[in-house]
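#lab-general

N.A. 3:47 PM
ok so I finally got the sequence cleaned up, no stray characters, all 452 residues accounted for. can someone with queue access submit it? mine expired

B.Y. 3:52 PM
send it over

N.A. 3:53 PM
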Amino acid sequence: MPWEREDLQRRTLAGRVPGDRPRGRATGAPRPGAAQQVGSAPRPLSPAGVLQLQRVVGNGATAGLVTGDHGVTVQRDYSPEEIAAITRLQALVRARRVRAQVRVRQEAPGIVGVRVRNSDPRALGDISGTPLAAVRQHLRDDTEYNQLRVLGGATQGAVVGPGTGEGGKLAGALATGLPQGTAVINGGYFAHTEKILSEENWSGPRVDEQTQDATTEDPEVAKYLAYVKADEKSNQLSPVGSTGRPVGETSHRSDPLPIPSEYAEHYGQVNVGGRVGLSSGPVLTHQGVPRHFPDDDRFAYRLRLGDDVLDNPRNRQAGALTHVGDPNARAAVSTQGRDVLMHTVVDPRMRPGDGVTMAQWQTMTMMGAGGHVAGRPPLSTLNLDGGGSVYMGITGPGGVRVVAKGQRPSEKVERPVGNIIASLPTVGAQEQPVPVTADDDRPAEGSAVVGQ
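B.Y. 4:20 PM
back already:
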């Protein structure tokens, strides 16, 4: 097909400015017998260009090139070899773009790592229809999801933390002494400050046993009364007085803080070797069934009362789940058959409001683990401490190689954690297995166990 004169005259060529008349022969059919080569005629180049190829029909091939800021269209006949070359080039460009956003590789023997980023919106179409695309669509700009799948790790795990009476410790320090090639992630909630409140010495009634002091049909008034009640309860609680104490039962110390009564039904536990390793919450998925988070004041960090937006009084209590509805950096641990999966979502810049809500996190961990795929073992997932406590890595000769961290870059000192979860793949394992197990039965009222 001949080049179109009008289109050629409007193109921007190397060394000329738009509007210059092209030199030499620029239109008309090729001379008889002349070979038509790819690139022999000038082509428009533009960062906004989009290359579209049509299917090859019969023995010939037709291609359409749509490019340029002015919507210039040039069409010509391409040989099958030319189509194949252009297709390969497109595939290479797409593959490079996808690899920058989605990476799956072996991080250590028996540990498969997945990283999903959201810094190039063009790559979303290249992975559309895949589970990782469902993960990526929940990520905010420049945030990333990381996963470590520890093959056979459910039979060789541990919870490591400070002893009774000790404060929080650095995750890397807690991992000291673990075998090389062990995946680690931060654990559950703990008292990160002496001033945080607890129900430990609270003599008041349980929340579900309290009676309404007043009744009203006005929803705004009812919301205000609920806020007053929560504030009154918060004022009755006492500071814990020391740091490091975990919220809920653990295997490494005997001085845990009680799980807040308003959230007990949403907490779960990790069992290691038949014992409770740690407690955390909320349970995201149990035996393949996603858990529901009520849409009420207990799960909101800030409350709107009329024209005012106030901090939730529950924020001051250790182990409160008021962060459920707000975007935050997150961490979670899953078991799926014999495998252990560790998940994080962080923004390397840790800007305020970045991260994901708990509902988004529930979906991301499910899709990232393939828990929705028929025929796979049921998935159980427990949310862990988030924000600046997020820490995930793999032990090696020089210490822990950090895969993800929730700490702000401006913070010069690493944040301590209450404990860590460690899992060693059974591939090449030398030590006696310590199983991470779970039962369908709940060990205590209002709790759930994550496991096989």
